[in-house]
Amino acid sequence: MFKPFLAGVLLLAVTSVAKAEVLDIDDHMADKIVSICKFVQGEGHPEQLRLKGMAWCKVGVDYLPEEFKRQKKLVNHLYGSDSYKHLLQKDEFTSQLKKARRRIAEISLGM
Q1: pLDDT tens column, 10-33
Q2: What is the Cα–Cα distance from 23 to 75, expressed in whole angstroms?
Q3: pTM to 2 decimals?
Q4: CA dihedral sign of residues 101, 97, 81, 79
């Protein structure tokens, strides 16, 4: 039950971010996205779900409009750690990043 909930929350957050031109993203929503990024980075989640969540969160925050510099900076700092750099060497994680980037691009193009 926990896994589908987290996946749904992440998908909703990232979809909302990807449609930044359509939806009104405010500071509150951007702060929620940062909270999700912190949550998925935490220990105790199944590894595959954690990797997928971190990939979607990182890519989603990259798509936030420039007016959310504070939130982008928080997430970039969070994901700038050595543990994140270590994840970039994992094939499964880089695969999740590619999938997230591709899907968000498709969503933003209305596909």
Answers
A1: 555 555 555 445 456 788 888 988
A2: 21
A3: 0.68
A4: positive
64-78 residue pLDDT tens = 888 999 999 999 888
**Half-sphere exposure at residue 45, Cβ-oriented, CA atoms within 13 angstroms:** 22
Q: What is the DSSP letter of 66?
A: G
Domain positions in the chain: 2-108
Rounded to an integer, the average pLDDT of 71-94 is 87
CA 94 to centroid of chain Cα atoms: 13
- Of 53, 79, 61, the closest CA to residue 20 belongs to 61
CA distance 18 to 8: 15
Biggest CA–CA distance in the chain, Å, is 35
Structure tokens given for 57 = 């969160």
The pair of structure tokens assigned to 92 is 């499964």
